[in-house]
């Protein structure tokens, strides 16, 4: 399991290859979030952010068959088209891989301590993100 909060960009293909090495892996589901429309700055609380992400991954492992997982979230100044976040989940079965990947992303949006600022100011949490996370309870 890998959780990273970093300024640097990431290579999805490389990370998918890394988590696919287990002979029991039958499926890998992944998600990449990209900056759209306007540049942004992302801030986080070091230590607390990684802890929250690890807890989310641990919870996903308790719900589905997760053999391996990588979560990377960037921070700092990001421009339109930049990758922001990736989640990749390896599982014996596609249903578990898809569900765990979606769960991790939904919870990341609502539970991980990130703050997003666009040109117009700080961006508030969206009710749609909260609703997406609620369905997993």
Keywords:
137 residues, alpha+beta, 4-stranded antiparallel beta sheet, 36% helix
Can you characterise this structure?
The chain has helices at 12-19, 48-63, 94-111, 127-134, and strands spanning 2-6, 27-34, 40-44, 68-74, 76-78, 83-91, 114-118, 121-122. By secondary structure, the protein is an alpha+beta fold. It has a 4-stranded mixed β-sheet with strand order 1-4-6-2, with helices on both faces. Helix 3 packs across helix 4. The radius of gyration is 15 Å and the shape is globular.
Count of DSSP helices?
A: 4
Average pLDDT reading: 95
Assembly form of the protein: single chain
Shape: globular
Rg over alpha carbons: 15 Å
Biggest sheet layout: 4 strands, mixed
Distance between the termini: 23 Å
Compressed to H and E, one letter per element, the order equals EHEEHEEEHEEH
The secondary-structure class comes to alpha+beta
Number of strands: 8
What low-confidence regions span 5 or more consecutive residues with pLDDT below 50? none
Strand content: 25-35%
In short:
The chain is of the alpha+beta class and 137 residues long. Helices cover 36% and strands 32% of the residues.
Write the layout of secondary structure elements.
Blueprint: E1 2-6, H1 12-19, E2 27-34, E3 40-44, H2 48-63, E4 68-74, E5 76-78, E6 83-91, H3 94-111, E7 114-118, E8 121-122, H4 127-134
Parallel strand pairs: 1-4
Antiparallel strand pairs: 2-6, 3-5, 3-7, 4-6, 7-8
Helix pairs in contact: 2-3, 3-4
